[in-house]
Amino acid sequence: MTAPYHLYGVPASYYTAKARAFLRKQGLPFEERSSAHPEFGTVIFPAIGRMFLPALQAPDGTIIQDSDAIIAWLERHAALKRSATPPGPVQAVVSHLFNLFGSEGLTRMAMHYRWSVLERQDSFIAAGFIHGLAPESPPAEAEAFARPMMDKLAGYLPALGVSEASLPRIEAAYDALLDALAAHFRRHPCLFGAWPSLGDYGLYGPLFAHLGRDPLPAFHMKQRAPGVFRWTERVGAPNLDIPEYPSYPHEAFLPDDEIPDTLLAIGEVAAGEMIPEVPDQVAGFNAWAAGQPVAPGEPILDKPHRRAVGTVETAYQGVAFKAGVSPYRIYLLQKLQDAFDVLEDASKARAQAWFDAAGLSPLLDARPVHRVSRKDNLEVWAG
């Protein structure tokens, strides 16, 4: 390699965190650039057609947008220290589950703790947005750039199920998640051993960029579950970073397709965050897709910047709300289902039993009638 990768993102970005951690852990040379960098406007945006972060430009000029796509591309094309896919087939399925949970199922929690309490951490949040939009502008001008974007993102809270009725449930779920993760990390450095899996990177996005970095939730994490904060440091470090596990016997993934018992409590929190919303979204997607001219390889959404194909009635822990129906969420769900479908019988029975015990079986049962793929950094109808 004669030139480093260029990662376009910002420190406050949920999904940039995931791609950045993978690059660091693999020891791949990269330069991070914000969306204010001139080449984002002249090279990256024209190639991807939407103002989404992160985007990666490889040394050969290839441009990949989306944290999952970046990791998948690097897994195929880069010289890695070790894959993020655990060797055990059931481990791989559960890893996909935690990637889905972190990438999509924790958005409500992460956005609540950024925007519902903005008045108590406003200067820090504003600085993060200025970083990505106008870092070299005079302060008043920079703030004028940042505020409309901040207001837009704060306006997404109702569509995520954040309301006065749901706030106590969201905050109780954050505590339950911290407790479950802390119990696991007392015994293991990462989800499946000492090396981060795809599931670790999925969880890292919200647990670092929002919940482990924004002042209020980060303080709560450090006080209630310091081991979880240490895990965020570990996943983002370029080395193994496990000094507090001097007798830990594994330098990579646990052998024999082991699923630690401590993961079940984390799965139960995931069920509370994603059920019934994700199955309801699949049903909404299926109803919408039934009336569409499905053409393999063609974009699902009519404009690149759009994320949803409509809304569906659902609920968060008994509190009703309208959720957007996201083709990208369907795409990640398919990855989980595909990993489950190829299991041999004995492994499939083990995986099914784990999902049943966690209350997550609806994620295996909710099947889209049309598959979603990605081409040219867009969600498209699969062949």
Please describe the structure with a list of short key phrases separated by commas or semicolons:
383 residues; alpha+beta; four-stranded mixed sheet; two-stranded antiparallel ribbon; 16 helices; 8 strands; 52% helix
Mean pLDDT: 94
Tally of individual helices = 16
The oligomeric status of these chains comes to single chain
Structural class assignment = alpha+beta
- Indicate the percent of residues in helices: 40-55%
**Runs with pLDDT <50, length 5+?**
none
Largest sheet: 4 strands, mixed
Give a topology summary.
Blueprint: E1 5-8, H1 14-26, E2 30-33, H2 38-48, E3 55-57, E4 63-65, H3 67-77, H4 89-105, H5 107-116, H6 122-133, H7 139-154, H8 167-185, H9 198-209, H10 215-224, H11 226-235, H12 263-274, H13 277-289, E5 311-316, E6 319-324, H14 327-341, H15 345-358, H16 361-365, E7 372-375, E8 378-381
Parallel strand pairs: 1-2
Antiparallel strand pairs: 1-3, 3-4, 5-6, 7-8
Helix pairs in contact: 1-3, 1-9, 4-9, 4-12, 4-14, 4-15, 6-7, 8-11, 8-12, 10-11, 12-15
Could you characterize what this model shows?
With 383 residues, the chain is an alpha+beta fold. The protein has helices at 14-26, 38-48, 67-77, 89-105, 107-116, 122-133, 139-154, 167-185, 198-209, 215-224, 226-235, 263-274, 277-289, 327-341, 345-358, 361-365, and strands at 5-8, 30-33, 55-57, 63-65, 311-316, 319-324, 372-375, 378-381. Strands 2-1-3-4 form a four-stranded mixed beta sheet, sandwiched between helices. Strands 5-6 form a two-stranded antiparallel sheet. Strands 7-8 form a two-stranded antiparallel sheet. The longest helix has 19 residues, at 167-185. The protein is globular and about 60 Å long. The two termini are 35 Å apart.
